């Protein structure tokens, strides 16, 4: 089974997305090897892990992330909306997340931006990644091509990937021009021929967001290199993990802890 499981915003099917609880729950599944998170920046320049441009949906606060300070965001409850058992969860900083997962999970960091919404976001994120010595363990992705180009200019060795929910004819050539080696794509736009073409050209495809067992099986049949991004890693595990696979994944995780 090569279709790696990517925990979308952590184990967001059960825990509040993009929180330590969701990330820890994903890490508790022995077969999860990748985490996908969203990063924005506070008014005072702290990279924080949250999906929406405002805090309204997932916290007890109000306002746009870019207009709030780190201390203001820190006071908000980011867990109670998902259930009382998650009361007190906070929006984590990127630094906290990388510290938590280092040596255990690789990370798909989405630069959640549009146009010039967050000047300096790429530099701040890369600085955080380098502080934790995790350049080889991350990929920077974004819907915003300019963010990916800027990241490559700042650090040519960083892996980058476009996020897209369509399949224009020139997509492969666009990826090559941008020097992307990763593609995050809505699963309905993938087929076997396109997946094979991507892999042949050194580009790793990740399908999102896949919670349906039938779709997971279909993607696996298309190509073993398609990464499956899901809110429900447990569903992935029920489909793909044999007892032997569980043992291999367990000992692989132990080895990583020793390395």
UniProtKB/TrEMBL annotation:
InterPro entries xref list: GP_PDE_dom, PLC-like_Pdiesterase_TIM-brl
Organism of origin: Paenibacillus campinasensis
Pfam family, one: GDPD
Single biological process term from Gene Ontology: lipid metabolic process
Superkingdom of source: Bacteria
All copies of domain GP-PDE, residue ranges: 3-240
GO molecular function: phosphoric diester hydrolase activity
Protein name (record): Glycerophosphodiester phosphodiesterase
